[in-house]
Amino acid sequence: MKKLLIKNLGVTINNKQILKNLSLTVKSGEIHALMGPNGAGKSTLSSALMGDQNYELTNGSVIKMNGESLVDLSPNERALQGLFMSFQNPVEIPGLRIETFLREVHKNKFGGTTKEILKAIDFRKYINDLADEYGINTEFLKRGLNEDFSGGEKKRLEILQMAMIKPDFAILDEMDSGLDIDALRNISSGVNKIIAENNTGVIIITHYQRILDYIKPDFVHVIKSGEIVKSGGKELVKKLEEDGYGDI
Q1: What's the rounded Cα separation, in Å, for the pair 227 and 22?
Q2: CATH fourth-level superfamily of 3-88+168-243
Q3: What is the share, in percent, of the chain residues with pLDDT greater than 90?
Q4: What is the model's pTM?
Q5: Maximum CA pair distance of the chain?
């Protein structure tokens, strides 16, 4: 079984410590929800896991995926190893056609290791079929990357990338941010499909219960002041909704 191991993770930025001795293990197919108040360190964790160079790891920090250390790898190298992150606010790149972007991502991820889709026309059929499978209008692929996208459109593109890449582990950073109820259901359905088909292990970072009504977590963790202070099952979400974080 594949495993993402985070052990004694400490993270500083501008000499200020954000995370301290944080430990978490995610196995294939598991869904872990990470909740906590603003400023607790949730997004810092996602950035540190993906190798954002603005964050410095303290001595003794361990990030391993499938037995291999990620600590010295660049974000691109971590992605190639099988780690995926869905951004809360994906960057907009006007003029870069989505289909072109996705083809380059596919070539970098799979070229030389699995059957390659070499011709543009072959890739177009592949990505159109995948978009249809996930309920995404193929006209969407002709647009610039996140150019003038709504929140729901940005998140649908993140799901399409995730479906194409088939990561071992995925970090979903506030994927429910800015979504109406219909978009939330569609996005959640896509995530559940990817987990079921690829046995992807997932960390969902969220403030709210509503996405966890659709993507049901196996484990729920509360982070405060840079540490995981409580863990439990789905019942913990309801308690947090009712009582908040004050008593934890």
Answers
A1: 5
A2: P-loop containing nucleotide triphosphate hydrolases (3.40.50.300)
A3: 68
A4: 0.92
A5: 58
